[in-house]
C-alpha cells in the first residue's frame, strides 16, 4: 500500500501557481531625433585599472563536488554537464530544499518553431522527473521581450515592439499548453527587470570587468581569465566580424554589449550611462539572480546557446558576484529537417502551429521524445507519422482497457498473477533506470511496448480472455503505464477524446471526410459480397495509401489512422 501511495504521489502532475515577475519602476521610452538635446548625457565613470578579475567560484562547479552540499539526492539520477563534459550524479545545492532551474526562453518576434518545441519539451521532462523524485522545483523561464529582432520585425509591420512581443508570447504559451508542457514557476520579462539589469551592470563596472564607450557598456573579456571554460573556446577563436559587426571602439573584438545606447525609433530606459536598453546576454544573468539567487542548480537551453550566450552569462554573473556558480549546465541538441539544418533561408523552417494543424500535439511530443534530448533529431513527415501511429495504438489499447474494466469493477483483493506482477515491476524499474540515466526517454517509451502487448492479449485473444484475474491485471497494467505517460507528459485528459482528435487529424492529412471513408467501406463490403475481391483489395489499398487502415471483425469493418503505405518502406529502411 505504501508503494502504491508513493507511486500515486509521484504520478501527480498538479501545476505550480504562476508567480508574477517583479515589475521594474523603469518604463520604456522611444527615442526621436527631435528630442536628442533633451536626453541625458552619459555619466563619466572613473577609469579602472586593467586588472584581471579572477573568481574561483566560477570554476568550482566543475569540481568533483560540483559545488553542491555533500549529502546525495535520490540515488541514481545523473545528468550530463556541458561544463565538465561528463555525466554527473545530481546533488542539489540544498538537499531537502528547492531545486533551482533556469531555462532560457524565447525571443517572441515570430511563431515558435519545432526547435523551440524540442527544447521546452526536453526541460519539461526534466521538470516532471525531478518532481517525480519528490523534489520541489522552482523553474524559471524568461521572455526576451526587447531585442534587435523584435524591433526590426515591429518596424517592418508598423507595430509597437511590446505589442508584437506580447502577441507572440501569448501564442508561445498556447503552443506550450498544446504540447502539455507544465507552466514554469516564474516567467519573467526583460522589460520588467531593467532596474535589476542596470544594478548588475554597475557591479560589473565596479569590479573592473566592463567599460563605457559613448553610452554603450561592454564586457571586457581580457579582464576575465576564465572566459571560454563552458564552450572550450579560446579568445583567439573569437575572430572579429564572424557573429557581429566589427566595432573598432572595443578593446577586444570578443567584448560584448551589456548596455546599448539609444537609437532613433527604439525603446529606451534611463541609466547612469545615458538612455538605452540591455544587451542580449545580461538579462538572463540578472533575472536568474533575481529569482534563484547568484548560485543555483540547473541552467538549460539549446546547444546553440552554449556560445556565446551561456559563456557570456557565466562571465557576467561571476564578474558581478564572485560567489556566482551553477552546478549543472544542460543543453539539448539541434533539429534538422530531412537531413538539413532547419533555417528560414533554406525554406525548411517549420512552426509548431503548422505541425499541429495536421497532427495531434502529443504526436509531435512523442516524436521529440523518441530521440535522446542531447542527440540531433531529424524531423521528417514519415517519422512523425510513425509517432502518431504509435500514440494511437497506445491510447486505443488503454481505452479498450478502460471500457473493459468499467463493465466489471469487481476486485477479489487477491494478489495479481505472477506474470502481471513481473511485468509491472519490470516497467517501473526500466522507467526509473532510463530516466535517471540522463533522461533516456527513448528507453522509457520502449519499455511500455511489452505491457501494451500483454494488455492486448488479455483484451482480444481467446487465451487472454480466459486468464485468471484478467480485469485486475488490466487495471494494474493501465495504472503503471499511466504513471509512465504522466512522467513523459503524454497522458491525455481522456483516451476517448485523444483518439477522436487523432482520427480527425488523420482525415485532414488524407484530405478525406469521415463520410467518404464510410462510403468506401460500404463499397468494399458490397464488392466482397459480390466476390469482386480485386475491387475490394483496390479500395483497401487506396485508403491505405492515404493513411487509413481498414480492420475487419465480427461486427463489421472499422477504420483507424495508420502510416501511409507509400511511406512504410521508407520508415523500415530508416530503422
Strand proportion: 5-15%
Give the overall shape, derived from the CA principal axes.
elongated
Number of strands: 17
What is the averaged pLDDT score?
87
Largest sheet: 4 strands, parallel
Q: How large is the count of helical segments?
A: 20
Give helix % range: 40-55%
InterPro entries: Cys-tRNA-ligase, Cys-tRNA/MSH_ligase, CysS_C, Rossmann-like_a/b/a_fold, tRNA-synt_1_cat_dom, tRNAsynth_Ia_anticodon-bd
Subcellular location: Mitochondrion; Plastid, Chloroplast
EC number: 6.1.1.16
Enzyme class: ligase
Write the layout of secondary structure elements.
Layout: H1 2-11, E1 29-30, H2 57-60, E2 78-81, E3 86-89, E4 98-103, H3 114-132, E5 136-141, H4 148-157, H5 161-178, H6 194-206, E6 210-213, E7 216-219, E8 256-261, E9 267-268, E10 276-278, H7 282-292, E11 295-302, H8 306-320, E12 325-332, E13 335-337, E14 340-341, H9 352-358, H10 361-369, E15 377-379, H11 381-407, H12 418-436, H13 441-446, H14 449-460, H15 462-465, H16 470-488, H17 495-510, H18 514-529, H19 533-545, E16 548-553, E17 556-561, H20 565-574
Parallel strand pairs: 4-5, 4-11, 11-12, 13-15
Antiparallel strand pairs: 1-9, 2-3, 6-7, 7-8, 8-10, 13-14, 16-17
Helix pairs in contact: 1-16, 4-5, 6-7, 6-8, 7-8, 10-11, 11-14, 11-16, 11-17, 12-16, 14-16, 18-19
Amino acid at each position: 500500500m505504501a508503494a502504491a501511495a508513493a507511486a500515486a504521489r509521484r504520478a501527480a502532475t498538479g501545476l505550480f501557481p504562476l508567480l508574477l515577475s517583479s515589475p521594474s519602476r523603469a518604463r520604456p521610452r522611444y527615442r526621436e531625433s527631435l528630442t536628442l538635446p533633451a536626453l541625458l548625457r552619459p555619466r563619466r565613470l572613473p577609469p579602472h585599472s586593467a586588472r584581471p578579475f579572477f573568481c574561483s567560484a566560477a570554476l568550482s562547479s566543475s569540481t568533483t563536488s560540483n559545488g553542491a552540499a555533500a549529502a546525495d539526492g535520490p540515488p541514481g539520477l545523473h545528468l550530463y554537464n556541458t561544463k565538465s563534459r561528463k555525466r554527473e550524479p545530481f546533488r542539489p545545492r540544498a538537499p531537502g530544499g528547492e531545486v533551482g532551474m533556469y531555462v532560457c526562453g524565447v525571443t517572441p518576434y515570430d511563431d515558435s518553431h519545432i526547435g523551440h518545441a524540442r527544447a521546452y519539451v526536453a526541460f519539461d521532462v526534466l521538470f516532471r522527473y525531478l518532481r517525480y523524485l519528490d523534489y520541489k522545483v522552482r523553474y524559471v523561464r524568461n521572455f526576451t521581450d526587447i531585442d534587435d529582432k523584435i524591433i526590426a520585425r515591429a518596424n517592418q509591420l508598423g507595430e509597437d515592439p511590446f505589442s508584437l512581443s506580447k502577441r507572440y508570447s501569448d501564442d508561445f504559451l498556447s503552443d506550450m499548453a498544446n504540447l502539455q508542457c507544465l507552466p514554469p514557476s516564474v516567467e519573467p520579462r526583460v522589460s520588467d527587470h531593467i532596474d535589476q539589469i542596470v544594478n548588475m551592470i554597475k557591479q560589473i563596472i565596479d569590479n573592473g570587468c566592463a567599460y563605457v564607450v559613448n553610452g554603450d557598456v561592454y564586457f571586457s573579456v581580457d579582464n576575465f581569465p576564465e572566459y571560454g571554460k563552458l564552450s572550450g573556446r579560446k579568445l583567439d577563436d573569437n575572430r572579429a566580424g564572424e557573429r557581429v559587426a566589427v566595432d573598432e571602439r572595443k578593446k577586444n573584438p570578443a567584448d560584448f554589449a551589456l548596455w546599448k545606447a539609444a537609437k532613433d525609433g527604439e525603446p529606451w530606459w534611463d541609466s547612469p550611462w545615458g538612455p538605452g536598453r540591455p544587451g542580449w546576454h545580461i538579462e538572463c544573468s540578472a533575472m536568474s539572480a533575481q529569482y534563484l539567487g547568484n548560485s543555483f542548480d540547473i541552467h538549460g537551453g539549446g546547444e546553440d546557446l552554449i556560445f556565446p550566450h551561456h559563456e557570456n552569462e557565466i562571465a557576467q554573473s561571476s564578474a558581478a558576484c564572485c560567489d556566482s556558480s551553477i552546478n549543472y549546465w544542460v543543453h539539448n541538441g539541434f533539429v534538422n529537417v530531412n537531413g538539413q539544418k532547419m533555417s528560414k533561408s533554406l525554406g525548411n523552417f517549420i512552426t509548431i502551429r503548422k505541425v499541429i494543424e495536421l497532427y495531434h500535439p502529443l504526436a509531435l511530443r512523442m516524436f521529440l521524445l523518441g530521440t535522446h534530448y542531447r542527440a540531433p533529431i531529424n524531423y521528417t513527415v514519415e517519422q512523425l507519422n510513425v509517432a502518431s501511429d504509435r500514440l494511437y495504438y497506445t491510447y486505443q489499447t488503454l481505452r479498450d482497457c478502460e471500457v473493459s474494466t468499467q463493465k466489471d469493477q469487481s476486485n477479489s483483493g487477491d494478489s495479481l498473477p505472477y506474470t502481471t506482477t513481473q511485468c509491472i515491476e519490470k516497467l517501473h524499474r526500466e522507467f526509473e533506470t532510463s530516466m535517471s540515466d540522463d533522461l533516456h526517454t527513448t528507453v522509457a517509451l520502449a519499455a511500455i511496448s511489452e505491457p501494451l502487448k500483454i494488455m492486448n492479449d488479455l483484451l482480444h485473444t481467446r487465451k487472454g480472455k480466459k486468464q485468471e484475474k484478467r480485469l485486475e491485471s488490466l487495471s494494474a497494467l493501465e495504472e503503471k503505464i499511466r504513471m509512465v505517460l504522466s512522467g513523459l507528459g503524454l497522458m491525455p485528459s481522456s483516451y476517448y477524446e485523444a483518439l477522436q482528435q487523432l482520427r480527425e487529424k488523420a482525415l485532414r492529412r488524407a484530405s478525406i471526410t469521415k463520410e467518404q471513408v464510410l462510403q468506401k467501406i460500404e463499397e468494399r463490403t458490397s464488392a466482397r459480397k459480390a466476390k469482386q475481391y480485386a475491387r475490394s483489395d483496390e479500395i483497401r489499398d487506396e485508403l491505405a495509401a492515404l493513411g487509413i487502415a481498414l480492420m475487419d471483425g465480427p461486427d463489421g469493418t472499422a477504420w483507424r489512422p495508420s502510416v501511409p503505405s507509400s511511406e512504410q518502406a521508407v520508415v523500415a529502411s530508416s530503422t
